[in-house]
Specification:
The protein is globular, with a radius of gyration of 14 Å. 81% of the residues lie in helices and 0% in strands. It has 4 helices and no strands. Helix 2 packs antiparallel against helix 3.
């Protein structure tokens, strides 16, 4: 029971930070877009969704954000 409660609390913290990232990502902040993409890839605070992750990573990469470009290349490489 305690483990389940701790898991729920951890998910809520991930969800709260994901909501903040989403706000910044929508404003065009490349770093937030990349981090949000990683959240969608891993299902941390948001439902796991590779298509949405790809979308956000692509937006960040288009802004010449090197880490996002690298991550996008890895997404292409790994399918």
């Amino acid at each position: 029971m305690a483990d389940e409660l701790d898991e729920q609390k951890a998910f809520l913290k991930w969800a709260e930070s994901a909501a903040l990232l989403q706000t910044d990502a929508r404003q065009g902040i490349a770093r937030a877009q990349r981090l949000l993409a990683l959240r969608y890839l891993r299902g941390r605070g948001v439902p796991k969704d590779e298509a949405i992750a790809f979308y956000w990573m692509q937006l960040a990469a288009q802004q010449h954000f090197a880490l996002a470009q690298r991550s996008l290349g890895e997404l292409y490489e790994n399918g």
